């Protein structure tokens, strides 16, 4: 077990502002909440020697574009959000056990439905797994032109504001969350196709093997705990705090949540 003295600096946790229900800040001041935030607190409490009191955590704001650089530069100790475990990222960083299983979806504006004769203009995060899943998907039945944005928030803003953009590609849960905040029925539609299947994990530095092993051991404990079931219900079945709607997802749906037993 990794232990720290009482006067040790807080654990610096990289978290995002605009990726509900995983990590988001409902207020202008950066105070992130979400599934990944709650899970990180439970896990790090165990890593640092006990569940109560929770260790001091310093939330450091990162984006999809800055999170890897902040970790490599040592400005954060761990990144806990919605980062997909990929072979490419594994060459640069370590990852925890999977914390969530995801696929990607495409949302289109009303009147911009795809067809074989139409090129769909799609925005998404530049260099993201959503972009890769879209570009590698076979049999879509339509052509597309991709426009890159630096973050999920920037992609969403561009999708809403730019009349030349027809669609947006992103993680399904994040996309459902963004759509849940819209109150105009028929304004947008999700295409039926799911692009790829991947898993999220907590991202750590390659050199922090002891820390990484402790995080995995603690994750196994947390996955088997009543607290974890409460977290799943809170963020995927109940009304999302500060947002006023529910994703109405089953917290036991294995299509989304990769369960990990302590016996593994």
Kindly name the structural category.
alpha/beta
User: Quick one: overall form?
Assistant: globular
The CATH class assignment of the largest domain is: Alpha Beta
Name the beta content range.
Answer: 15-25%
Order of helices and strands: EEEHEHEHEEEHEHEHEEEHH
Helix content: 25-40%
Terminus-to-terminus distance: 18 Å
Radius of gyration: 19 Å
Biggest sheet details: 6 strands, mixed
Question: What is the CATH homologous superfamily assignment of the largest domain?
Answer: Periplasmic binding protein-like II
| Tally of individual domains | 2
- Under CATH, the topology of the largest domain can be stated as D-Maltodextrin-Binding Protein, domain 2
User: What is the number of strand segments?
Assistant: 13
Q: Helical stretch count?
A: 8
Overall pLDDT metric: 87
- Identify the CATH architecture of the largest domain: 3-Layer(aba) Sandwich
The parts where pLDDT drops under 50 for at least 5 residues are: 1-6
Give the tags.
single chain; 264 residues; alpha/beta; D-Maltodextrin-Binding Protein, domain 2; 3-stranded parallel β-sheet; disordered N terminus
What are the SSEs and their pairings?
Blueprint: E1 11-15, E2 18-19, E3 23-24, H1 35-47, E4 57-61, H2 67-72, E5 78-79, H3 87-90, E6 94-95, E7 100-109, E8 119-125, H4 129-136, E9 143-149, H5 152-161, E10 167-171, H6 172-180, E11 188-190, E12 195-200, E13 203-204, H7 209-223, H8 226-236
Parallel strand pairs: 1-4, 1-5, 8-9, 8-10
Antiparallel strand pairs: 2-3, 6-13, 7-10, 7-11, 7-12
Helix pairs in contact: 1-7, 1-8
